[in-house]
Amino acid sequence: MSTFSWNSFYTYETCQSPVVDQLCILLGFTRLDERSYKGLMGYVVRAPALRLKIPPRFPIIFIPRREARAEDVTALRDLMGVLNMVSYFALVIDLRDTPPPNPQQALAHLLRQATHDFIVLDGHALRRLLAARDHSRELVEIILSQVDLTVVSPYVTSGPVPANMFFGREAELKTIVRTVRDTNFAIVGGRKIGKTSILARVLHLLQEIPEYHPFYLDCQAVHSYEDFFETVETMWRLELPARTPEAFRRVITDLPTRYPLRTIVMLFDEIDGLLAYDIERGESLFRVFRALSQELALRFVFCGDKVLNNALHNPRLAFFNFCNRMVLSYLRPEEARRVVTDPMHEMGVVLDEDGDLAAQIIDYAACHPNMVQYLCQKLIERINQRRERLIRRNDVESVGRSTEYAEYFAEVLWGSTTSLERLITLWLLERNHLTLGETAHTLDTAGLAVPLEHLEEAFESLTLYSILRREGPQYTFAAPAIARVLRRGTDVYGSAASYLEELRASYGVKQ
To answer: Tag placement on the chain: N or C end, fewer CB within 10 Å?
Structure first.
């Protein structure tokens, strides 16, 4: 075991750099930069991924004075700016062992008043860290002793999850990375099911393979050709002679000369808006995509929703037989369990042994990746209020059965659904299963002239969103939790009546 003693150095200034070097060796940090400011010295390091919500880059800052002052807090904040830190996290080191006579002047006391997440390591804490058998675990304990669990909780309920919180999807990742040289992919699924996260993971993996050169584009705000070409020029730094599909084609055709012996992979996230716009205009852009894929060592991976899924099934569109369709649904139980247990263990949070609480959590969440993260974050907030690290059965039941959770679950499930799709879902609450014919008969009885193809599309979409599961001619809920949360978070009869009125306004009433 490596040890360090700052007694072997003559001055406080000369011992700072060796302390940082020793921390980097023991904790796997990498030194990136260093700056001094108003007597403070900051060393920027890159840290390996921990399952805590701390930035991958942060500074280690040394405080030279025994008695801290309010000006030191201001200087610390300013130094974060000098170091170009976009986060509020830093390790602040005071090598002295004895606190000042006035507790109000203690560094830890002053920094608790700051909005930044400054973690103080005094001489005792630093020696404990260096002498620990598991240095990373000891650092986590020091961090957790000084901040709320909610500050460092790694659970993510919006946007893509970071790599250290990516669980499961191994089969999908292997399929894409191993075969993308020869085929294109279309990843489809419901809201917050993990499409963006898996695309981000594919991007990272391809960046590490010399045979590929990936280009990534988030198309969530792209709804026209002008939006698309402007985003391409900005994000990919490609100069287009004109903002047209044909000009884009000419520029992309030259890319293989810039990246010889590589397969170029273009990753497009949230493609539905642009695809719908392109279909209305004769598919000028997506026909170019298809032609480029046939002519060059160029492949595409698209992520989308209903529009993309429908285009894959329409033989009149360019997407038909263009991509391998990959549907994302719920995690497997063992994968969902890891989303619960691994970060909890990292934070030192214990699940009460009164039954299998992890199994209960993933049951409430239906193994939906976002629902699992949401439930766990709410549990962290609950125990944080008690200043505990123990989750009990009544915590899980209180959160899992709450109206707030039911409403959030319904919002995620129904985020992109139509009135017809929501009405079908509510009707299914009254029975064990539905068929297409039964639903058509019920609509006819209600006097609604809904075309059969629209009804078929509605059931297809509900299956795509993992709300329903098809078993032969019958459709049932994809998970029992769906029925439970919809009953608890929805005015079933009132909502059904409202959706019926909307459908009457859209389709008219049969005479």
So the answer is: C
